[in-house]
Design brief:
By secondary structure, the chain is of the alpha/beta class. The protein has helices spanning about 15-25, 45-55, 65-80, 85-95, 100-120, 140-145, 175-185, 215-220, 230-240, 280-285, 315-320, and strands at about 1-5, 30-35, 120-125, 155, 160, 170, 190-195, 210, 240-245, 255, 265-275, 290-300, 300-305, 325-335, 345-350, 355-360. It has an 8-stranded mixed β-sheet, sandwiched between helices. Strands 12-13-11-14-16-15 form a 6-stranded antiparallel β-sheet. The protein has a two-stranded antiparallel sheet with strand order 5-6. The protein is globular and about 60 Å long.
Length: about 350
């Protein structure tokens, strides 16, 4: 059995929708997870902006919500579905204080409703099967226990799940990957990620045919944005095979399972290097909501890499207020990496590959 996740670029307009319908039907895919429609004005971004307007004035009737509504209504109309009642209910809930996570998750909710109708599939809400811990992480054990809620064939909205308290909670951006991985792991099914590129690239223009879970996790964490890196641990825990495929081409794609990278691959990311890693300082950084991505000892000196992905200007100013912190470029490699690919100021090797740090 296959669980397939389609990203926002794969669902951006009606022609994309119908291509997804053809893929699902021709491959007899029984479980589909969707992001909100992407494109020039991503539905998720419009809903975030609309919620901010609600915070300002107490009413979600605004340009951004109207634009999101127009796109959703047009997609639904093209497949013969009327979503007016859903949109009216969503407006009322947001105006009634349903909250940020509810408001932003409605892009995936409505997209799944429309695709389910187009396919003739059941709609299964993510809150019925994607269970989260109190801190918002995927609770795979609970998700597995609730897998009976997944009535095949079906479409499930990605990007959100249900907290133990019963509330809707968004996953991180790119979290529809986590939704798909959790459901595939719970069902023990092959997982297919359909996107707008041919697979995971090796850093010098070629698609990687095979990666192990650990290799894929490293490349995705350090810059290869095709998949959310946390997906790998979910899939690995249940031995689920992942295939990254292009919605718009017939490319072979990348398979992620147990076979390791042939040759070498690399990805890069801008981060912060902290060379004074006393435990109390690291704890203070974590308490600000920042992430310590990597720690190592080199020539007697403790070093830590601090992830700057998605930080606000305030968070960045707090990071830079510490002595001994500087911006760096991190190159992560997997496979048999030649020396010329990883030149820098600091180099760490392990069984997966290497992490090279270059000062800016």
């Amino acid at each position: 059995m296959i669980v397939a996740k389609f990203g926002g670029s794969s669902l951006a307009d009606y022609s994309c929708f119908m291509r997804v319908v053809d893929i699902v039907k021709s491959n007899e895919i029984p479980v589909v997870i969707v992001s909100a429609p992407g494109g020039k004005n991503k539905i998720t971004d419009l809903l975030i902006a609309a919620y901010e307007r609600w915070v300002e004035c107490g009413n979600v009737e605004c340009y951004e919500f109207a634009l999101a509504q127009e796109r959703i209504v047009e997609l639904a109309r093209c497949v013969g579905l009327n979503v007016d009642a859903h949109i009216s209910s969503i407006k009322a809930a947001i105006n009634g204080g349903a909250g940020f996570d509810y408001a932003v998750s409605r892009g995936e909710f409505l997209c799944a409703k429309i695709l389910a109708y187009a396919l003739g599939y059941s709609f299964v809400d993510a809150i019925d099967c994607v269970k989260l811990t109190m801190d918002g992480e995927i609770d795979l054990k609970s998700t597995l226990a609730h897998s009976a809620a997944i009535k095949l064939p079906c479409v499930i909205p990605g990007f959100y799940g249900k907290l133990p308290s019963g509330q809707i909670k968004l996953l991180p951006r790119g979290g529809s990957d986590l939704s798909g991985a959790a459901i595939a792991a719970a069902l023990g099914s092959e997982y297919q990620k359909w996107t707008d590129v041919d697979g995971i690239f090796n850093g010098h223009g070629e698609v990687i045919s095979n990666l192990s879970y650990d290799e894929a996790e490293r490349l995705c964490y350090f810059g290869a944005s095709v998949m959310h890196y946390k997906s790998m641990a979910l899939l690995k825990s249940r031995g689920v095979r992942l295939a990254v495929k292009n919605t718009f081409s017939n490319s072979v794609g990348t398979e992620i399972w147990t076979r390791r990278c042939e040759g070498y691959a690399l990805s890069r990311k801008e981060m912060f290097l902290y060379k004074s890693c006393r435990a109390e300082r690291l704890n203070a950084i974590r308490q600000q909501g920042l992430k310590i991505a990597f720690q190592a000892r080199l020539m007697g000196n403790e070093m830590a890499l601090i992830d700057d992905c998605g930080f606000s200007p305030l968070a960045l100013s707090r990071i830079l207020s510490y002595d001994g912190i500087e911006r760096v470029t991190v190159t992560a490699t997997v496979g048999s990496t030649p020396p010329f690919a990883i030149q820098g100021d600091f180099l760490f090797r392990d069984e997966i590959g290497a992490i090279c740090i270059s000062k800016q």
